[in-house]
Amino acid sequence: MKTSYSKFIVSALVVTSIACTTVPLTGRRQLNAVSDTEVNQAAAQSYSQLLSSPKTTVIKGTADAQRVKAIGARLSSAIERYLNNNGYANQYNFQWEFNLIQSKEVNAWCMPGGKVAVYSGILPITQNDAGLATVLAHEIGHAIAHHSAEKISQQMLAQGVGGVLGSAAGSSGTVNAINQLYGVGGGLVLLSYSRNQESEADRLGLTFMAMAGYDPHEAINFWNRMMASNKGGSNADFLSDHPSDAKRIADLQARLPEAMKYYNK
């Protein structure tokens, strides 16, 4: 027991000494044991692999596909301005991509580095530009908050010093971790954020959509539609780690005054 405990303490000290970052807006300090460059490169590789897979149909040229790209560009531009104006410019080097994927799955995600996928199955619930902006801003919030890197770092810590040093020594381990998180190659997105991370992405997303000129009140309307559509359990994967309906709506309403300070009509 003492030996195992000692290894755990040493592992924790090793990982903690690697890096600790601060999440924009929330100010939360987090463990980050992998470099942004490494994670972003791994995500770009995984994203390219997904888009080029015979199992993936990327929708191009349609009105919906153009909306995804246009709203994504508007959000990313506003977010970049905020980061540049608040001392975060050196912490992010996103190469943004927004793609609509043909799928009945109600889902969307943003990989590290700004690699975004929207599944067509979620569009009937987003309904309008503000609804789609809600989804995109929330998923981008995960990337801005380095949630994927945080999860990888936690896994490295759980593996012990050997696992930490092995993963930190090369990019192959990071690519594999990204593939597992986002289900690349397996046809199923396995990403599972903690509820605290989901709540943090809600807060960031609400403010990001306001920065881009979308009324943050519309986020509450979207989540009400999402919860209503999930009564039959059809959206279980998308909502599995999200806060409960009542708590999410209450938290969003509590955050509205903060987001409205950034609302640019």
Summed up:
60% of the residues lie in helices and 8% in strands.
What does this structure look like?
With 265 residues, this protein is of the alpha+beta class. It has one domain. Helix content is 60%, strand content 8%. The protein has twelve helices and six strands. Strands 3-4-6-5 form a four-stranded mixed β-sheet, with helices on both faces. Strands 1-2 form a two-stranded antiparallel ribbon. A hairpin with a 3-residue loop joins β5 (108-111) and β6. α5 (129-144) crosses α9 (195-211) and α9 packs parallel to α12 (245-260).
Task: Name a few traits of the molecule.
265 residues, 8% strand
Q: How much helix, percentage-wise, in residues?
A: 55-70%
Query: Taking strands numbered 1, 2, ... along the chain, how are they ordered across the largest sheet?
Result: 3-4-6-5
Instruction: Please tell me the total number of domains.
Output: 1
Structural class: alpha+beta
Strand content: 5-15%
Q: List the secondary-structure elements in sequence, H or E.
A: HEEHEHEEEHHHHHHHHH
Tally of helical segments: 12
Report the principal-axis shape. globular
Low-confidence stretches: 1-17, 161-170, 186-190
- Rg value: 18 Å
Distance between the first and last residues' Cα: 59 Å
Total number of strands: 6
What's the main sheet like?
A: 4 strands, mixed
Return the average pLDDT rounded to an integer: 82
